[in-house]
Each structure stands twice: as C-alpha cells, then as structure tokens.
Amino acid sequence: MISIKNNTISLHGRDISYIMTVGEHGDLLHFHFGKRLADREYSVPAKWSAWSPYAPEGHTLDNMPQEYPSYGYADLRPGAFSYTKGSMNGIAQLKFRGAEIKKGAASVPGMPCLHDGGAGAETVCITLADEEAGIEAVLAYTVFEEYNIIARSTVIRNISDSAVYLKSVYSSCLELAQKDREIIYFPGSWARERQLERCALKKGMRVNIANERGGSGHNMNPFAMIADKNSDESRGEVYSMSLIYSGNHSTNVMCAPNGSVRILQGINPDGFGWELEPGGEFASPQSVMCFSDNGFGGISRELGRLYRNKLCTSRWTHRERPILINNWEATYFDFDEEKLVTIAKKAKEAGIELFVMDDGWFGARNDDTKGLGDWTVNRQKLPSGLKGLAERINAEGMKFGLWIEPEMVNPDSELYREHPDWVIHVPYKTPAQSRQQLILDITRSEVRDYIIKSIKTVLSEGNIEYVKWDMNRPITDMPYPGYNHRYTLGLYEIAGALTSAFPDILFEGCAGGGGRFDPGMLYYFPQIWTSDNSDAAARLMIQYATSMGYPASAMGAHVTASPNHQNGRMTPLKTRADVAFAGAFGYELDITKMDGDEFEEIVKQTAFAKEIRKLVVEGDLYRLQSPFEGNHCTWEIVSPEKDEVFVMSCKIMTDTLCSEPFIRLEGIDESAVYTDTLSGKTYYGDELSRRGFMPEYDMKDFATVILHLKKN
Ligand code: GLA
After folding, report:
1. What percentage of the chain reaches a pLDDT higher than 70?
2. Residue 305 DSSP SS3
3. CA of 466 to the centre of ligand 1 (A)
C-alpha cells in the first residue's frame, strides 16, 4: 500500500494513488493524487513548467507542486506554515530528511482522527527540515486499503536554540495542475446551515473557506470540494478536503496565474499563534482528502462509509438509533414532571422509544437568563429528581435522556457567583454575552475538572441512556492568539472523558442546531442535531447539502409542529416525516395534542422508521434531484447488498405540470425485481435505473412520495 523507491513515495488506496517525489535539490514535490497508478518510479517530471520568470533565481520552487511549501525563499506563493523568530521573519526551505512507513493509522495527540480498527491502514511519516532556520516538519500520511482517501497531519518542531513563534500551521496542502475547476462549499447561518454554493475557480483567484466564530460554525463547514467544471452527482473528477476539527478552520484556495491550484487546509491562521521553545513541537489536526472520478456522489458515499467505520468511536455508530421525542418545541422551559411523563406515555403509544428532556431541568433555569452551569436538578419542577424521573419514564417502557450545555454559564448562576474568573475574558473588558451566557474557560484544568465531575454526577444519577450536548453561542473575548485551539483541545478532553466514562450512552452533538457539525465532533458523538430549523422544506436543502460530506445517520432529523416554529411554514405531517426518515429520526412536538388521524399517522411513521433505520445507518446515499437547482428534491439510500432501497422525493411547489417526471434510481441491482413494501407494487431493477420511476405527488405544496423497495 505504501512504497518508497529511491526518490518516490507512493501511497495506494482502493482506486487511488497519492505520489510524492524528492526533487534533485531535496524538496518534497507533489506528483499525483487521483486515479490509481502502478507502483513504480515515474517517467514524467513533477514540475509543471520548464521555467518560471520573475521568480527567485537558480533553484526556484515557484513552478513546483509541493507537499508542504514554505513561503519567502524559493517560493513566493502562500506557504503551509509561517513563523517569526524574535523580531525576524522565519525564512525556511524544508528539505527531505527521511521517511518511515508504519503499520496502522496515524494518531494525532489530543485530537480526534481516523483509526484503523486493527487492519487495513498504513502511515508514512516524512521528516523535512531546514537546520539553518531551525525548523523541522513531520508530515504523516495515512492510507486505507479499502478507501479512496489520504489523511494528513503535520507536526512542526523547533530544532533551533531559541524560541520561535508559529503564525500558521496548515495540516495539509494539495496542489492540482491546470484545469477548469469549480469549488463547492457549505456556508450558512443559524437555522440555515450548510447551504450549497458552487463557483468557478478563475486564474489568480483566492478563496478562503474559513470560520473564526470559535466552533467550527454555522457560517462555514470545514468541508469543501474542488471539481472538474460541469461535474455532477455521478460524473467528473472531484477532490474533497475535510478537517477533523471543531474550532476555527480554513481551507485556503489559491489559483495561480497558470491555472494551477494550491489548497491548504487546517487551523485558521487568523487569531492563531503558538510559541515553541527549543525542542518544542506543535501538532495540527487531521485533514482528510478524498478523490472520486464519479462526481460528488462518489465523495459522499466514500466519506459516509469512512466516518462510520474509521472515525466515529461510539458504540452506537452501527446500531439502529432509538426513535426519540424531545420536549423542547412541545414545552420550551414550561414543564414539570407530570407533563413530561404524560408526553412520554403518549409517545410510547405512538411507538416512540426514547424520551429526551431538553433545556430547563436544572438550577434556576426557567428561561434562558439563568442557571446554566448549575448541574443540579430543579426539584420544584422534578420532585423525583433525575433518578425518579428516569424510573417513571422507564416504567412507561421508554428510555430516558437529557440535554446539557457543559461549556456554558449564565452570569446569573451559582457557578458564576462562585467563580466569576472562570469565564473567557480579557482582564480589561467585560466579556460579551450571547443568549445571556458566557463561556467557561476550558483551557484551565480546574474548569475542565469541574465540568467532568459535575456532568459525571448528573449522568450517574439515574438511568440516562442519551445525552444532547449543546453549545449555544459563538466564542468571543478570546484572550490571546492560539486560544481557540487550546479551547478546542479542552473540549476534546472533556468530550473524551465523558463519552469513555459512559460508553453506552448515545450522545448527540448540537450547537444552536448545526453550529458544530464537523468530523471532530462525530468522533465522539455519532449523531448531531442538524439544524434548529426543523421545517421540512428548509430541511430538504440543509440535509441535502449536509449529506454531501456526512453520513445520513449523523443527521438528527425530527418531525415538528406545523406551522413550523422557526419560519411559520405549514407542511403536511407526511412530508415532515418523509424528510426526516433519512436521518436519526425523532419527534419534537406536543404529542399529547395529537389525536385521531394525526396520531394514527404517527403510529405508522414510527413503525416505518423502525423498518428502515438499519438501512439509514449502513446504506449508501445517492442524491437524485437537487432542491438547489429545481422544484424537486430526491434522495435514495441503498443497502450495501443492494437488496433494500429507500427513496424520498419531494415536489416543492405544486404545479399542474411536472417538469421532471422520471427519476432514475442509482446504485441498485439492475437484474433484480423489487417490491415496494408501502404500495405492494413490483418494479424491475433495470427499468428503475434506466427509465426511472414516476412519482405521483399529491396536489399540494411540499408533497412527498416515498418508496421502500425490497428485493424479491
Ligand atoms: C439550542 C438547541 C435547541 C434547544 C435549545 C435549548 O437552541 O439547538 O434544540 O435544545 O438550545 O435551549
């Protein structure tokens, strides 16, 4: 899988090769990332053009694709790292010093990363150094036999005898030769996360896909794709880069005047800084690069499988997820024990399996102005305590789970009154509040210890089988450069301590909805609340775009009330469930008010969700019609054996004319005959895939059609 032959280092995955060569002056050059090549020494040169005018003389690197470029000496394009030495700029030119192949996946100290689960991975660690400048870089590349990905991380070491100050350390660098390409990225905002954007990369352009709001952010996901112009879901060469990181990130794309592209991915250099004493080192997070010559769908299915098998560590990753009901949109803060038990009881009758008590159960938390940080149960609301409530919910035949927001504190709380200095702040300014809350300074060990101890106490109090871990504001007042990275390391320490102390609890991440939906959090939490916007029509776009970089099973998706609480839209109950089925399915509405036909419909929905949830956890997702491009949104999940298929198709606005009547299924067994368990109709695989099926939508806005096909 990895070989070193004279000056060539080659990594081969399932259908890909990643190849580097050591140039005649000792530079580590990029040669190829793409379709698999035979393992040998290669005949064409790594460099892109024979000469580079107006560049450093002699041995210039300005026209060379590199693995970890330095700025300012032989290359004047932005570099993968930068530093200062006292009042001087760090000018370095890293040279190859050696490479070592190891069995297994690389580990990244203090941070989540891919794991090999015992087999199928190899790593090469390549040491580069400039002894004059006193800097060494160790580049780790992991390749998996069964995947088309390369995972990269970097360690920078100070090998001089005085301190250096790192200003930027990217995790990976990918250089692509001249071609017409486009970038696909996922910006958004609260309640509108991960909207799909696509634009052409033109010569000379600089595009920074970045976030500096503290968490990985609603406003930009740490995932982007660079694709051949006109690529689509099944055609075109596509590269993706995902950062396994939950803090400020940057995917920095620079298009050279000759049309070649350099992409750097890692911690956002804005606000970053790190002092390295002599001998000190800094480790970057891991960046996952994927290649597909089958369009965006090839990337998504690869990442979906990769994350399920090699990233998520939860015992729940491959398990069918319980159908939950969350009381947030049913009660907000206005609840007591009886009300919760009544909801749980009715939910049980509907076939729901897990009751989740959201915000408002602790301290003086009767609204969002008080109580955060005080993790003791509010006995006025819940006289039986967590233990007693869990018992009552369990007695109804339901699992019990709860909401926490461990990183936060309200100024109006016991915790803040006791430790006002524990919040993130600069000494000369009152810290900014957001949602009336401040952030605990989890770079401090005593604060982490408090959080771990108090949440462990909560989770040991009763039979708690699920936790929703929220984080409801951006990070402001960061006191010094590099603070955000230390915060992120603190977060990982807390998440690691709690998830490993309670390995059977199903953890769901959340950050004001999907504000920290990233591969770093997925390492600990197998599912994440996708968005506070639970309107089915808005969710079509959010879930469609999220599925490009993440598995369906990672997306928390709930049926909520109509009119929707976030945008007032009215949608049929059927649509709300049909859209949510392709995720970690649940309800978030006052089920005690639902009777008659509506209740019966929910009973049917939960029964159906149970039938398809194994498929949602293990299947491959295909996007067939994009809500970003037309009036239809269709997705499909196919089991690995191709014997089971779920299709959801929505006609967004009703219309007498169907502009796209036929939908061709993908990834199915064309020689098979399938029966739809919902309608009893039989379909031939070749017809479904070559001609397509024609959904018969109801005559109303947001009408959906679903199919659940099983091989005869
Ligand atoms: C955030 C979450 C919601 C809910 C509230 C509770 O907004 O995204 O789902 O838990 O907090 O305060």
Report:
1. 100
2. helix
3. 16
